[in-house]
Amino acid sequence: MQKEIIVLLGGPGTGKSTLINELVARGFCCYPEISRQVTMKAQQQGIEQLFLEQPLLFSEMLLEGRIEQYKNALEEPDNVVFIDRGIPDVVAYMDYIGDDYPESFIKACEDYKYSKTFILPPWEEIYQSDSERYENFDQAVKIQEHLVETYKKYGYELIEVPKDTVENRILYILDKI
Fold it and tell me: What stretches of 12-85 adopt beta strand conformation (E)?
């Protein structure tokens, strides 16, 4: 079987981390979203919201971490690896805020390709803000639009995961792989 590196993507609060946690509980190899780690590290250094205060630095750190996740996924003994957010997310967020970024961001999107991409739609009923998620639901919808546009630009076919129970969403994903 060929190595499958599968990305779960979607705007903030669409249930990605919940699904990743459930996949881990079922014994799948999964890599978590790393933006919270980057944000918390910056907060420990006195920067409340690194993405808002220094978006390019934040994005460079994310890009580096996501490339590392991709490379590590290639080395996993498991044939299927799930990742919470992918490399193109970095470009989508920079486009969302309207900031410029270096050519290396585009090259990374072209060089590191995922096997499958599952997109979770905005879902107001499950959306929650917290200390690392500063966006409101309307902003989350706009981010979703940028994610769709960016992934399609890099040639991905997005498989939309229906709004449903965690169990049914997992079964849907597993059925598609």
Answer: 29-31, 80-84
Check whether 44 has a pLDDT greater than 90. Answer: no
Amino acid at 58: F
Burial category of 36 from C-beta neighbours within 10 Å (exposed 0-12, middle 13-18, buried 19 and up): middle
Phi-psi region of 13 (alpha: psi -120 to 50; beta: other; left: phi over 0): left
Q: Are 9 and 120 in contact (CB under 8 A)?
A: yes
Amino acid at 67: I
Tokens 């970095």 identify what position?
Answer: 90
Within 8 A by CB and 6+ apart from 171, the residues are none
Task: Identify the H or E element spanning 160.
Answer: strand 158-160
Strand pairing category for 116-119 and 4-9:
parallel
Residue with tokens 């919201």: 49
Determine how β-strand 158-160 pairs with β-strand 29-31. Answer: unpaired
Residue with tokens 């220094």: 54
Q: Please report, as a single letter, which amino acid is at residue 162.
A: P
Residue type, 62: L
Residue 158: which pLDDT band, with cuts at 50, 70 and 90? Answer: very high
